[in-house]
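Structure ticket #2291
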Amino acid sequence: MVNDSSEQLNTIFFALADPTRRAILARLAHGEASGTELARPFSISVPAISKHLRVLEHAELILHRKDGRTHRFRLAARPLKEAATWLEHYRQFWEAQFDSLDTYLQVTSEEEQDPHDTKSVS
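Resolution: structure written out below.
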């Protein structure tokens, strides 16, 4: 059974998997923007941008408010922090694995190069 936290991470990583959505988040890191402002740098339609915004909203990566007829969007930091925490756990794990491998390879290499090694080679 998948718990709510895992499901939220799946949703976040799905949203982050698309380069257009990552570019939207990068733009929103500089401050709030309207849907039209967010669509401007892309060669895709406003409805397509709206779909991207809905995915980002579903992942809770962005928040929006209405200002008259204009929808304004801003970045929500909490989900990115959750994803970064999850990634950090695995970064530490793999870094330890690679450190162990590096140590093993150094010891093995030193043993092969030791001219005073009295082991007989068969």
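Closing remark: Residues 4-76 form a domain with the Arc Repressor Mutant, subunit A fold (CATH 1.10.10.10).
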